[in-house]
Amino acid sequence: MWEEASGISSLRVRLLSAALVALLSVLGLASATAAQAPAGDTIVIAIEGEPNNLNPIFGDVFGSFNGDHWPIFTSLLDYNKQTELAPTLADGMPEVSEDGLNVTVRVREDAQWHDGEPVTAADVVFTYQAMLDPDVATGLRDLLFESLAEVSAPDERTVNFRLSRRDPAFLDKLTIGIVPQHLLEGQDLNTARFNVESVGSGPFVFSEFVEGERLVMTANPDYFGGEVGIPRIVFVFINDENTRVARLEAGEIDVDAVGLTPRIAERFRDSDRYDIVRVPGEQLSLQLPTHNPVLGDERVRQAIGLAIDRPAFVSGLFGDFGRPAYSAFQPQHWAYDPSVEFDQDMDQARALLAEAGWRPGADGILERQGTRLSFEFLHSSDPLSQNAAVALRDALAEVGVEARLEVSPSFEETTRRVAETGAVTIGRPGNAYDPDLYLFRDFHSSSATDDDPATNRNRIADDQVDAAIEAGRTSTDLAERRSAYAQLQQALQDNGAVQYLGQRDYLLIVSKNIQGIDPGTLDGHLHGWSRGLMWNLAQWRLG
Questions:
Q1: What's the angle, vertex CA 72, arms to CA 273 and CA 518, rounded to 5?
Q2: Which of 11, 48, 112, 513 could connect to 258 by a Cys-Cys bridge, CB 3.0–4.6 Å?
Q3: What are the boundaries of each domain within the chain?
Q4: Coil, helix or strand for 179?
């Protein structure tokens, strides 16, 4: 998954003072603990981004692509603290046939919709058939379900999924929230009122949705998963970090689920009201499109990667709350191969550029046949993107590469420019789940066209990359898949179109009055209502 980096700020990489690093290193980090109970029965959670559709089959706000859904809904399976799959609506883990083409799931008998009707296998079939329906405007169909041929219910409790190919990531695709057939059948799902006034089977019941302000939910007294500890939750939509901080300091917010920069989070280090929770999150990457006129040679892209001092880059942006990155997989992921880690090597970078025919011009920028080694570098206006872009520009200038910085007005404009001109950008990859959920569309040569600018943006067309992706998605043996993805990581590094730079930790502010917070071990993108910090939201308590 690729997005332009945004959402946190810092000082310019090379100018971060030693005093700040020392201060950050002693920042108090802990899970929330019990303290004096707050007045009332409500907690207020600040999130970034506002939904325009609560229905999980549409994947909004940021996508059920990573198994995310509002706690109004439940899914057959969901992720636990360790991002491992566990049954929710399913009565045990699914049965997978020996050839991997048939998956059978039993639906638990004690689940019911918020209107009192029972949840049945027919609801599951309706949900997945809706996502397969070409008249339903969901992006999940092409992202997730090209392998699903048919879904059926032979009885009230059994669901059969028939696949068109062996799909080792299919169980991850059973984390989509299930919707009620009896309330939606016969309606146009694209315009149904249900999409903003939803009925689910989850631990919280929809109460109110005020556009531009808040989404309110109340505890479900009949939740099959047991007693829900928080009587009422209000999600408030606040993108601006300064606004969130002001409302935290005023006591108007109980949880900042977006994450603050290290410098800003330090304000809460000695707070008697809040704790700071740390969750490993997304990575930053430098995207070097192969169709850029000066980046077509892999030696140039490799040289750019070698010119970057990743530990210094991470230290400057995140202090002690991050780590260098070298791979499409976070270091905590089961597929990560540490053998791809490498050190900055300016001499080797210069040698590769010379081998590719680039020579210093009058101003030190490399040239070849009258063309300067120069490219447009788009970034967003948030401080993180600006500081990262400046640091990368300065590092590349040392080997004669000119990055012309430009603030992009929107994500859509960035996408267009990348597709049309091969503009360089900062990416924010962060998949914490099965690799096949995103590898094919992001890196396989069959996606390297200009028909869909959202897939394989860097136009990677590499036989070694293709072979490793295909090997990883056709086996269900974990050792075989690890081997395939180790080959993939090396192939991507050799190709050089994506330079992974660093992984950040989210610094989340939570009230000491909330018990039961048990943050996940890896989050990827912090978009979430059903993972990361809030994976066990139903178990939180006031006290």
A1: 40
A2: 48
A3: 282-504
A4: coil
Cβ(526)–Cβ(259) under 8 Å?
A: yes
Give Cβ neighbours of residue 303 (< 8 Å, ≥ 6 apart).
348, 349, 350, 352, 353, 356, 399, 401
Separation of alpha carbons 6 and 159, rounded Å? 41
**What's the pLDDT tens digit per position in 121-149?**
999 999 999 999 999 998 888 777 889 99
* Whole-Å CA distances, 305 to 302, 323, 432, 442: 5, 16, 24, 19
DSSP one-letter code for 94: P
- CA–CA dist 127, 132 (Å, integer): 9
Which tokens in the block code for residue 250?
A: 């005023």
Note if the bond before 61 is cis, omega within 30 degrees.
yes
- Answer yes or no: are the C-beta atoms of 117 and 206 closer than 8 Å: no
What burial letters (b/e) apply to 484-494, b meaning 16+ CB within 10 Å? bbbbbbbbbbe
CATH number of the 282-504 domain: 3.10.105.10
Say what the pTM is: 0.86
Query: What is the rounded CA–CA span in Å between residue 77 and residue 224?
Result: 14
Beta bridge partners of 208: 216
* pLDDT, tens digit, 9 for 90 and up, residues 484-493: 999 999 999 9
